[in-house]
Amino acid sequence: MSDSEVTLQHFYVFNSTYAEKEGEEKNKILYYHPPKTDVDTQIKNIGLSEAIIKFTESFNPGQKCDYCHTQKTRQVYYQPEPEFWMVMTVGVPFVMKEKDGNKYPEYQYDEVSSSVCQAILKQTYAIFRLFMGSFETILNEPDCGSVILLKHKLDHFYSWYLLSLKLNNSDILDIFQGLQFLPLDKATFLRVQCFMNLLEATFPLVKYTAFLYNDQLVWSGLEPDDMRVVYNYLVSTLLPAYLEKELEGGSIPRNSSSAFTAAHYGKFVTGPSSVNDVKKLPKVFINYSTKPVSLYLIVYRALSATVCLFVDSKTSPLPEFYKSLDAFLGPQLTTLVSSVADQCAKHVAISSESNPKYLYFNKLNLAYKSTIHFDNRRCSNVLTTPEVLRIITDINSDANRLYIRRMNETGEVVIKTMSDYWIVGKVSNLREFYVVLQQKNASIIEIDDEVKRLCEQQLKSIFFD
C-alpha cells in the first residue's frame, strides 16, 4: 500500500508559434495548472517539454513523443491539433522506507501506467472539444475569434474539469473509452428504434437522438467517436450528479411526477425544471470527421431510461417546445421502460467471487463488456486486484505494438502471477478478450479449456471464427 496517491502535478496547453522571438515566451502559454504557478516556472516547464519533444523527433522523424519517465513523475504529451500541445505531469506514488535510521521514499513505478495517463490526457481534449469546440474552431469564430478567447475558454473549462479527474481509479477502461451496449431481443430493440425515429420525425428541431437504459446504450444516431465522448460524460458526470441531487433527503423519488404534468414520471435533466423555468442548455460540438456543427443537448430521464436529444442550436427552444416534448416523451417512455426492464430481467446473470472475470472490447463498434468492473464511473468498483488490472493494461499495450504489426492481428498471452491469478489475453480481428482466473493448482490446458468455454458462453462465437 502506497503512502501517497497518483497526483496531477501539472497540466498545460501551449503553442510554440505564438512566441517566435526571444522575450515572448509567455505568449505561448495558453493554459497552465496549477494556476498559481509563477510565470517563470511555467516558461521553464514548457521549455523543457519543447526540448524533449524536439529531441525525440531527431531519432524518429514524424513520430511524436508520447511520454517521458523520471523517478518521481510521468510526463505525457499529446498534439491534438497542428502546433498545439497538451502536457500532463503525474506524480508517482511512494512508500516510506527506513535504512540506517534514515527514512526515504521508494517510488512505486508500476502503479502508474503511461498508456492510461495518455488516454486520460486525450480524454481531456475530447471533452473540451465537445463543449467548447476545437482550438481551430474557437480561433475562427466570426467577429470574436482570437487567442484571448481561446485562453478564456481553456481556463473556464479546465479550472473545474481537472478537479474531477480520478487518476487513482483509472485503468484499462480509460484506454478503451468504449460503449456498454444493452443486449435486447429484436422486437424490443425495434420498439426502441421506432420510438426514436418517431421522436425525430415529430420534432424537426431534433437532429440526433440516443437512448440509454441503466447507463447502457441501446440506440444512438451519432457517429461512434462522438457518442463515446457524450456517453462518457453522461455516465461519469451528468447522470451521477443528477441522481445524487435526487437522493438528497432520502431515497430516489421514483414516484415524483413531471414538472409539467402529474401523468408520468419523466423529467428534464438538462432543460427546464418547471413550466416557467427554461435554463440555458449546454451546447455540444460534433461531426469533426466531416464538418463541425453545434447543437443543444437536452437530456430527459424517466425511471431508468435516459433520452438524449441533439437540437438545432440556431433557434433556441421555446417553452411550448418543452411542453410538447414532455407530453410526447413522458407517457411513452414510461411504457417503453417496462418492456426494456422485462427483457433485462430475463438476461440477468448472477455474478460471484468464484466465477471467472472477463473484459471484452471491440474496436470496430467500440463495444465493451466487463464483469471485472461493477460500473464505469471510476469509483474503484472492481472485482480484482490493481496488479491484475496493470497486467491487462500491459497486455493491451503489447498487443497494440506487437500483435497488430507482427502477428497478423492475432495473438494470445497467458500469464500466471505469484498470487495464483491466471490472466489470459486474446487479440483477434480488432477484438480483445481478457480472462482472469484464480486457480492455484490448474494446468495451462485447464485454463485454456475454461477460456474457450467462456468465449462460447458469453460471446456466442463472435470472437474467434
Describe this entry's structure for a reader:
- This protein has 465 residues and is an alpha+beta fold.
- It has helices at 39-57, 114-132, 135-139, 147-161, 172-176, 186-202, 224-247, 319-346, 386-406, 444-459, and strands spanning 7-15, 29-33, 67-69, 73-81, 84-91, 94-99, 102-107, 206-213, 216-220, 266-270, 283-286, 293-302, 305-312, 357-362, 367-370, 410-416, 421-428, 431-438.
- α2 packs across α7 and α6 packs antiparallel against α8.
- It is globular.
**Mean of all residue-level pLDDT scores:** 85
Give the helices and strands as they follow along the chain: EEHEEEEEHHHHHEEHEEEEHEEHEEEH
Distance between the termini: 43 Å
| Poorly predicted residue ranges | 249-255, 349-354
Tag the structure with descriptive keywords:
globular, 465 residues, alpha+beta, 36% helix, 6-stranded antiparallel beta sheet, 18 strands
Outline of this structure?
The chain is an alpha+beta fold and 465 residues long. 36% of the residues lie in helices and 26% in strands.
